[in-house]
Amino acid sequence: MNVARRSVLGLPLAAAGTIATVRLLGDPALASTSAGVPHQSPIDIHPADVRRVANLPALKVHYSSSTPVRVHYVQKDGSDSDGCQIRSDQETEEVEVADGAGHVTVDGHRYDLLQFHFHTRSEHTIDGRHAPLEMHLVHQDSEERKLVIGVLLHPGASSEADRILTELPDECGDEIEVDDFDLASLVPARPATLRYRGSLTTDPYTEGVRWFLTTPQTTSAAGIKAFRSVFPDGDSRPTQKLHHRRVVADPEWRGRP
Ligand SMILES: [Zn+2]
């Protein structure tokens, strides 16, 4: 904001007003006050300051314990001649889930699981610190409203996610099919969560996303290293300003595994 303010102050008033409007409309991080403050993701979380609320509406997770999934690389620079080598922070490895293999309900409202994917380092931070990996399980209701479950992953005991992380498809290679995948083991059936309203963390950064972060979990160090080797410079968006949003959590939610 300092840069914007300086350039505005250097101009006659009428011109300054025009330029300020253009700048504010062009950058979601500077969205104008008349349109409301931006509510973007990810955010930094301070567990000591999070309001713990008993009896929040339960997030009920209904995932299959045996389903085929397909893993593919999400490429955003396919038109570039060296697009198969360049890693963009908008790219990831994504796991497509079969229709009906997973859904969640909250407040009696159903959201179907579409896909899950990973970011390194984690996008959400706890007291300013990243986990090495974060998994996003993306759900959508019948009106295409999004609900994302985020799971920060630290090195430790292995998880079902290792079956994906240790066998990732190349950027321009074939997708990989994994049979009998245990989706249900990725998230507890009634997880303690932290909740807030935010956005997609990749273009077009659409707001109105319901975010639920579970207590962080573990996956094998080998799985984390394998994903990191595909994205040596990372594929995560920096944290965004909270702007007085309400962040609440179940009393049992914790910021570390
Ligand atoms: Zn994501």
3D architecture notes:
- The protein has helices at 2-9, 13-26, 162-165, 221-230, and strands at residues 44-45, 51-52, 59-63, 67-74, 92-97, 102-106, 109-119, 125-126, 133-140, 146-155, 176-181, 193-199, 207-214, 217-219, 248-249.
- Strands 2, 3, 4, 5, 6, 7, 9, 10, 11, 12, 13, 14 and 15 form a 13-stranded mixed sheet that branches. It has a two-stranded parallel ribbon with strand order 1-8.
- Mean pLDDT is 88; it is low at 1-34.
- By secondary structure, the protein is of the alpha+beta class.
- The structure holds zinc ion.
- The site of zinc ion has 4 residues, from strand 7.
- Residues 247-257 have a biased composition (Basic and acidic residues).
- Its EC number is 4.2.1.1.
Q: Label the CATH architecture of the largest domain.
A: Roll
Bound molecules: zinc ion
Radius of gyration: 20 Å
CATH class of the largest domain: Alpha Beta
Number of helices: 4
Major β-sheet profile: 13 strands, mixed
The H-and-E topology, N to C, reads as HHEEEEEEEEEEHEEEEHE
- Total strands: the figure is 15
Strand coverage percent: 25-35%
Could you name the CATH homologous superfamily of the largest domain?
A: Alpha carbonic anhydrase
Structural class: alpha+beta
Average pLDDT reading: 88
Distance between the termini: 37 Å
Under CATH, the topology of the largest domain can be stated as Carbonic Anhydrase II
General shape: globular
Report the uncertain regions: 1-34
Number of domains: 2
